[in-house]
Design brief:
Elements lengths: L5 E2 L4 E2 L6 E2 L4 E4 L6 E2 L39 H13 L13 H14 L12 H13 L11 H8 L4 H13 L3 H18 L8 H13 L8 H19 L3 H8 L10
Antiparallel strand pairs: 1-4, 2-3, 4-5
């Protein structure tokens, strides 16, 4: 349901084709999801966004469990949808998760998905897959506490530092099992996804590259306001945690999200 056209005050990307709508040009803005588009792109607009009752909209911010479904696997629909989209058409892209998507589009799409709550608009109309990657990273970074939680943060760092591989693996599995269920399921879902990315020759994103990108995003710091010293000391250790998690056998992760991801693929 498109609102009457409005004048663009500053150049903004069209939500359908991604190219800029120039200053002073007419644009259409959707009343429900605030999507901005060229009048000519109206036909290609993704399936109509159904107005959701307000209480279904997700919180603007929260811990992971606030976004998770009520039945397992407890992986937020936003995470599932971004991952599914990336695996559908992104596994041939070089630098997946490393190459940034246009910031403005990442912000707009994250906003749309959060406002939509359960019934997510399709991501098929996002031309640049790096924008989808950006939305996923931005969502994980924007949580009130990192995926590994503040309380288990030190345990993850300690486990990843164990020099003996077998002991390190055992310790990490133990810490993962102590995570809140939604954090644990989502971590498992993401690890299986990142392993698939790492195995794609076209992406050129091995485990080390992915752990550099996802260390700060998934592991973060042990408090909401880390000191500059903590930030400096944490960074290499965050990457180490993700690299070690990615070296755990895929079957360990499948144990949390099921071998088949039937109920995870959005319909």
């Amino acid at each position: 349901d498109s609102a009457p056209s409005h004048q663009v005050i500053r150049p903004e990307p069209c939500g359908v084709c991604g190219s800029r709508i120039r200053f002073g040009k007419a644009a259409i803005k959707c009343r429900q999801c605030q999507l901005l588009l060229h009048p000519k792109c109206r036909e290609q607009c993704p399936s109509p966004c159904t107005p959701q009752p307000r209480h279904h909209a997700w919180p603007r911010e929260g811990v992971l469990a606030d976004f998770a479904p009520s039945t397992p696997p407890l992986v937020p629909a936003l995470v599932v949808q971004c991952v599914t989209e990336v695996e559908t058409r992104g596994l041939t892209e070089t630098g997946l998760y490393r190459v940034p998507g246009a910031e403005q589009l990442v912000r707009e799409w994250k906003q749309r998905l959060l406002l939509a709550g359960g019934a997510l608009p399709t991501l098929g109309s996002v031309a640049d897959i790096h924008v989808v990657c950006g939305v996923l990273k931005d969502f994980l970074r924007g949580l009130k506490e990192p995926l590994v939680t503040f309380s288990l943060h030190p345990a993850f760092l300690q486990a990843a530092d164990i020099p003996d591989d077998a002991a390190c693996s055992t310790a990490l599995r133990h810490v993962v099992s102590k995570l809140p269920p939604a954090n644990r399921d989502t971590l498992a879902f993401l690890m299986l996804h990142l392993l698939r990315v790492s195995r794609s020759p076209d992406c050129k994103m091995d485990v080390l590259n992915l752990s550099r990108v996802f260390g700060p995003t998934l592991v973060g710091h042990s408090s909401a306001n880390p000191t500059p010293l903590a930030i400096m000391e944490d960074t290499p250790r965050q990457c180490k945690v993700v690299a070690q998690l990615l070296s755990l056998p895929p079957d360990f992760w499948r144990g949390f999200v099921g071998t088949e991801q039937e109920n995870l693929v959005p319909t």
